[in-house]
Amino acid sequence: MIAGLTLTVVLAAGFRGAAPPSPPASIHWEKNFDEALRKARRAGKPVIVDFWAEWCSWCIRLDHTTYVDPLVVHKAQDFVAVKVDTEGSPKDVDVARRYWVDNLPTILFVSPQGRQLWRVNGYQGEGVFPRTLDKVLAIARQVIAMEDELLRNPDDPHALAGLGSHLYEVGVTFYQEGCLDDARQLLGRAAQRDGEESSEDRRHTRMLLAVLENMRKNFPEAERLVKEALSLGPRAEEQPGLLYVLGQTYLHWGREDEGVRTIEIIVQQYPQSPIAQKARETLTNLKPR
What is the tens place of the pLDDT at every residue in 198-217? Predict the structure, then answer.
């Protein structure tokens, strides 16, 4: 009986010893950005990049509050985390410059290939940051899947367009010229290869490209792209948006009469469209005061 009891105790102790380890008490921060990317690629995880400087009191506050919150620490295990001193080594300074970091703190999220996923400009407390991590992780899964597809087939039009659209949104949301430049290159490659994609996807790619070419003041190319999108037979709900981009192209180009006529079509033919209100405001602002 004693031997049996001893065996039971030993087995129970063995099972207790096999219990999963306790979660870490704080986020593990890498010190080298390139090494963090290498780890992210091996693990298939996104990267949290904490940009900081010694004089930044809000950066210190992040370390003492948000980054030690148990829920944040738990969720951060789905990421590789790295700190970059914006006034540190030449390499760190170059990373900050590459990602247009011009205020602190900045918390950047990038894919394993270094593409921007999202960013937080300024301090974010532990009450909000877990939701940000959830949001970024959902974005990251989509972006990483597209990046993996491009690694298998660099000419995949669907992945090119998807990544281009994502970088367009990030660039417009956070005024990131680098993202917009990358978006234009990816969308341009998609447009050259998307003959077998759906008309809806092809129109969307060309509309975003037209907006980007407008930003570069390349108005002839923007006009060509919108007219190509229109030739693909857009659905009624898509037509006003394309016409609005075309009208804005003409206005910025100095072809005001054509711009006005194009925007008037939206008001006349699609008065219930959400774009119609923007069209009316544009026409009102063009009238002499």
Answer: 999 999 999 999 999 999 99
CB 105 within 8 A of CB 123: yes
CA dist 167 and 259 (Å) reads 28
Sheet holding 47-52, edge to edge: 29-30, 80-85, 47-52, 106-110, 116-121
Eight-class DSSP state of 116: E
Locate tokens 């003041």: which residue?
A: 217
DSSP 200-246: HHHHHHHHHHHHHHHHTT-HHHHHHHHHHHHTT---TTTHHHHHHHH
Instruction: Enumerate domains of the chain plus CATH numbers.
Output: 22-150 (3.40.30.10)
Residues with Cβ within 8 Å of 231's Cβ and at least 6 positions away in sequence, in order, are none
Judge whether residue 78 has pLDDT over 70: yes
CA neighbor of 178 nearest in space, from 186, 222, 92, 46 = 186
By three-state DSSP, how is residue 159 classified? helix
Measured distance CA(91)–CA(96) in Å, rounded: 9
pTM for this predicted structure: 0.88
Number of H helices and number of E strands within the chain? 13, 5
